[in-house]
Amino acid sequence: MPNEGHLWPNIGMERSIPSQYLLILIALVAERGCALEVICNGTDLSLERLGRAGTRVGEAEADRVVANALHATGDAALGLEVGQQLNLAAHAVVGQTFMACTNLAQALDTLVKYGPLLTGGQTQLHLFQDSERARTGFEIELQAPSLAMRFTHEVIFSAAQKTFSDLLQTPTDQLEVSFPYQRPSDITPFGVIFGPDVAFGKARALMSLPNTIMQRALPTSNATLRGLYEAECARLLAHLADSTSCAERTLMALEKLEGQYPQLEQMAAMLNLSTRTYRRRLEAEGTSFQCLLDRVRLQHALTYLRKPENSISDTAIALGFTDASNFRRAFIQWCGESPTQWRTRFRRDGVSSSKRTTDW
Questions:
Q1: pLDDT tens, residue by residue, 142-162
Q2: Which of 174, 214, 240, 273 could join 278 in a cystine, given CB atoms 3.0 to 4.6 angstroms apart?
Q3: Are 112 and 160 in contact (CB under 8 A)?
Q4: Residues 193, 161 contacting (CB under 8 angstroms)
Q5: CA-derived radius of gyration, the chain
């Protein structure tokens, strides 16, 4: 999505990832002779802090560790190696939920639903379905700039491949993966992990498998345990939501009010704040109600435009615009191109899909 980054300032959200992921990265880099002080330079992290059960690390510090590790090793494909080290135990209770699922499709639903517990807030996971080719998978969407965009995509896709194989207790084949950056000079490690169907320079970051594989029964399936584990996942996700900032609570509310977006005063009342206090808190977090509203309307617009049966006029009306011309002007301001241009590029680079977002 071109030129969308200018909509997303640092809005001070409570964004974090599990500390065990960083411990695995640090251990791999340490094996190559890099000192802990070098890897954690510019952060307040220590092995003692990272080793505490249930610890989560803010994404700013995590990004710094990744950047340090990439610089120290000079290995641009480090994310692929880290992903292969993330076994089911590394994902804690979410990994236990994966194991108790009936099949890979159910495990994928779990991944999308509880993705924030694993990937933090700036990385969103969406369900992907290609009905024409009978394939199912997921898409990665970065909602905020990252110091290690390539690393983020590679570690998630590599970890997903590892998880799928571990759940099936057999290597996964017929994977298709696409990355939103140019082809690296050495693609050998990609072929080793994903197989031959890997594409680069695409508009979307996608991984998919045939539906026949997604429906294979998992040998560790247990409906009773799955219910218990998923209840704990839901509790942890709710805990993260309770600690969110004013901006993130606004995003979560707007996401659920598609086409019926409130005014600033109404949003403040929904959050039990005065208009003045609400505006001041958003300013302190480096954003504004209008910026957050634009962000959600763009997300909803792209969801509508992905479906060929929705016309530009239909999309405009669904998003609360008075006419298509007003929607077109807003979309150009958000993306730097018209809805028609975006849709043409999407159809050229992607395939028909349905997309379900997780909560912000």
A1: 865 555 789 999 999 999 999
A2: 273
A3: no
A4: yes
A5: 21
Closest CA to 295 of 254, 340, 264: 254
pTM of the full predicted structure? Answer: 0.68
Kindly list the distances between the CA atom of residue 354 and the CA atoms of 61, 70, 109, 136, 305, in Å, as whole numbers in the listed order.
34, 35, 13, 10, 11
d(CA 197, CA 205): 13
pLDDT in tens, 48-105: 889 888 888 877 788 889 999 999 999 999 999 999 999 999 999 999 999 999 999 9
Beta strand segments in the chain, E: 16-18, 56-58, 123-130, 135-142, 176-178, 198-199, 205-210
CA distances from 300 to 101, 322, 354 (A): 30, 16, 13
Cα–chain center distance at 4: 16
DSSP one-letter code for 91: G
Cβ atoms of residues 241 and 252 within 8 Å:
yes
